[in-house]
Write a structure and sequence with these properties.
The chain is of the alpha/beta class. The chain folds into 2 domains: 2-129, Rossmann fold (3-Layer(aba) Sandwich), CATH 3.40.50; 133-243, Arc Repressor Mutant, subunit A (Orthogonal Bundle). The protein has 11 helices and 7 strands. The protein has a 5-stranded parallel β-sheet with strand order 2-1-3-6-7, with helices on both faces. Strands 4-5 form a two-stranded antiparallel ribbon.
Length: 244
């Protein structure tokens, strides 16, 4: 596995490189400290499996670089590692298609768990952005509850978990396929192309997935799934979670 680590602080680069290589003997790390070096590292032929990107890169704008990577290399997972832990920044990078956000203040174990979750097909966001009812918009009419909200309501009443698991959502196999691609930040057109469906059919499936999760946007869906995966265990992939 080849990882591109992007940070303009040599000491941080060295520390993160040591942590990342502990993932396994087959892990190699390439470093970059500027947008120019990143562009050189991701050219075709330089196969990469993951990018870890700092948002603060001197004169370069990390958000703009993230947008460029997502547009040019949509299949390349990007995880943001930042000194910031503001909820607005977390939501912004997830909305832009990042597969995770890890604050630099996080422990080494947290970073490793986050990377494993991303590499297994999941997403990771820090706990401080989760556990809020704003990701589960309940209706004022009980008959209008979505499946995830019904499960969550029953769980709370019973004193158990605060959210349903992915396996409890009752997604169809095709909806599960759409969710996996949605988590990768792929737009409807790319999802339709990959699954051999029409864009309108994909829109219907996305709407069904959002209803099942009890959320009203893709970003909220990504954060909700991240919360579920972390509760079920850092080693559990999104594929196994939905099949469990």
């Amino acid at each position: 596995m080849k990882v591109l680590l992007v940070d303009d602080h040599p000491l941080i680069l060295s520390a993160l490189q040591s942590i990342i290589t502990s993932l396994g003997d087959n892990v190699s790390v390439v470093t970059a400290s500027s947008a120019r070096e990143v562009r050189q590292a991701v050219v075709p032929g330089h196969h990469l499996d993951l990018v870890l990107l700092d948002l603060q890169l001197g004169e370069d704008n990390g958000f703009e670089l993230l947008a460029e990577l997502r547009t040019t290399y949509p299949a390349l997972p990007v995880v943001v590692i930042s000194a910031s832990d503001r909820t607005s920044d977390v939501i912004r990078v997830v909305d832009m298609g990042a597969m995770g956000f890890v604050p630099k203040r996080a422990s080494n174990d947290t970073l490793i768990d986050a990377l494993r979750q991303v590499l297994s097909g999941g997403v990771y966001v820090p706990a401080m952005t989760m556990g809020s009812d704003r990701f589960f918009v309940s209706s004022t009419h009980a008959s209008s509850y979505q499946p995830a909200q019904q499960l969550r309501h029953s769980a709370i009443q019973g004193g158990y978990q605060t959210q349903p698991s992915l396996a409890q959502l009752g997604l169809t196999p095709r909806q599960s396929d759409v969710l996996k691609l949605l988590l990768k930040g792929q737009p409807n057109k790319l999802i339709a192309r990959e699954l051999g469906l029409s864009v309108e059919t994909v829109k219907d499936h996305v709407a069904a997935v959002l209803r099942a999760l009890g959320v009203n946007s893709r970003t909220q869906a990504v954060i909700a799934v991240s919360q579920m995966l972390q509760r079920q265990g850092p080693s559990l992939s999104v594929f196994h979670a939905m099949a469990a």
